[in-house]
Amino acid sequence: MKTTDTLRRAGRSLRQAKARTLLTSLAIAVGAFTIMMSLSAGEGTRNYSNNLIQSNVDPRALFVVQDKSLFESGGSASTGLREFDADVSDRNGRSIKLMNQEDIDALKARDDLEEVVPTYQLSVRSVTFSGSDKQYSAEVAAYNPDVKSEIAAGSLPEKGVAIKDDEIVVPEGYATTLGITPKDLVGKTMTLTIIQPTATLSEEEARQVIAAEGVEGLAQRAQGETKELPLRVVAVTKQAATSFTAATSASVSANTAREIAEFTTKGTDTYQKYLGVTAKATEGNDPAEVKTRLEKEGYAAQTAKDLQSLIFTIVNVLQYIVTGFGILALIASLFGIINTQYISVLERTSQIGLMKALGMRGSDVSRLFRYEAAWIGFLGGVIGIILALIATIILNPIINNALDLGTGNYLLAFVPWHAIVLLASLILIAILAGYFPSRKAAKLDPIEALRTE
Q: How many CA atoms lie within 13 A of 253 on its CB side?
């Protein structure tokens, strides 16, 4: 019997029991839908994460630290008693080895690194804007020229080019707080007030200050020196859909950031001490190889690929969990196929006997029932995949608007070859599920089968 004839006969047999065939196919469709949505969510999230990293991290970028526990979950907790090290700082119950200026200079002198910039921890007492004496509190950070920024007003240099030392970039929320438009905020002078820590004077130094500057001079020293930095607002940014950080901090140049950091920490244990540095591998150097060399010298480093791998690992774990539920649904549906096929064999015992009496071989009978199972797997897979495609089309705009992912970014990505592989797998699994019922049908004795009428 030809394969095509067997397929058509299997299809006709299933049409005679439409309700049972549809219900069994729907059971498979549930598993297919769950798995396909899981694959779509995983692919879409990976694509979005990849866009996120490409927009925020240069492929040659590295983050280098002295303490590798910063890259480990939990880190190293302080034991309360340890050997003194001027470069070790206790932060939130953790002992962290900081970089000093010698480390920075050593990294800058390397021929496989460029654009070595420390991670400055900036502290600003208050800010004011031209045309008003009202003071505000604000967060300030170093401007990252490699991060994509969406502009609400003003202009920024090209990606990879830093802003000038007398310029500052502020988020759109500042304009809202001030009650003006972003366009009106551009060009205003934003003055940062920073304070140097209170100086601790010896008795002899105190006498010298009193003799030279009087009691007022001593009081001023006790309060700490104050400095004002007037900066011109050149751009107002809005939150980018592909940005790691929320747009809540004003951004200054690296030189201004260094000036603020050194002024506000002078005379303290944290003066010229940094958690780490951002740097780039020089042209012709593989960031992974540079990372390996740094680790051999006692540093710890992460590359853009490391960050991508971390995000992808989280996405994959979530995808595996959802896929697992889909597989459980498929396993349940396989028992449905087996049950359906066994019932079909019992109901058609006399027909099987007649077919075998007319010369149909047992192998042909077995193949007929396996093809029926394949049809059920095919129908269930097609239904599940079509439903997943429709859900993807409907849900993508809703998710995009709810999460503000930006134009062209979606968390669900329907991949045709995923659907093809899934459908082929479901057909194969259905054929395997129909093996035992088909084997039972093939072994029926034609005379005994005809007597069951």
A: 17
